[in-house]
Amino acid sequence: MEKLPKIAFPVIIVAVVLIVLLSKSAVTIGSGQAGVLYKTFDGGVVTDEPPLNEGFHIVAPWNKVFIYEVRQQEQLEKMNVLSSNGLDIKLEASVWFQPKYDQLGKLHQEKSEQYIDRVLLPAIRSAARSVVGRYTPEQLYSSKRDAIQQEIFEETQKIVEGQYIQLNEVLVRDVTLPPTIKDAIERKLKQEQESLEYEFRLVTAQKEAEKVIIEAQGKADANRILSASLTDKILQDKGIEATVKLSESPNSKVIVIGSGDSGMPIILGNQ
To answer: Please, which of 46, 105, 245, 268 could form a disulfide with 254 given CB 3.0 to 4.6 Å?
Structure first.
């Protein structure tokens, strides 16, 4: 019984040491994350093996694990850029990105955990200045927004190529022009719209006028043709046909043959 405390004391010390070591060796990687292993005594950052995936891991207490978000992320960036004629433009853009999973070790080794500030944001700023500098404020404000967005994406993708970053999308959220330039553009666009509406009304009125003229011309031609075809002989034949039909009618009437103009019959009804 007297020896029990002497034996129990070293066991307790060992248990405490094991618990401390285990707490330092246990690493839990959350959902949407991955870990880069750094071996202190064996070559540093591990780049030739896949990163540690989600879940619980045991690593040597003298090694380290750097945890990265590997899901798609969004970075909002506001910047001042110059248009083609040197005017100051405020541009707000969002970039969707994520680190390349299988190259996470190289990303950590070469760019570090600050890769967003060191690589991505400078790339998007450089691309935006290059692209916006090709356009006038009027183009930026109206018709070229989608083209500018696509060009910024392509320019940024070229810059980050080989930097272990996967670029998914660039969205231009807002383009802010100087107030005087914006007002001038809006007035010009309004005048152009009014001009287009006026031209449309003129074209419509012209087409309506042409339609009326064509219809009138058609009626005139028809009357002229009809008048030319109605000779005295035709009128007499038509009159005779009408007289025959009327004579067959049961209604009482008096027909005077050859008493009308041009020898046409005169029909007298009983009323």
So the answer is: 268
CA angle 155, 156, 158 (to 5 degrees): 65
From CA 271, how far away is CA 259, in angstroms rounded?
Answer: 20
Strands (E), 107-210: 165-176
Please, what sign has the CA dihedral across residues 233, 234, 239, 241? positive
pLDDT in 10s for each residue of the chain, 271 residues = 455 455 655 655 555 544 545 556 788 999 999 999 999 998 899 999 999 999 998 888 889 999 999 999 999 999 988 888 888 888 999 999 999 999 999 999 999 999 999 999 999 999 999 998 888 877 777 667 788 899 999 999 999 999 999 999 999 988 888 776 656 655 665 565 656 665 666 777 777 778 778 877 877 777 677 666 656 666 566 666 766 666 666 665 555 555 555 555 555 555 4
pTM: 0.61
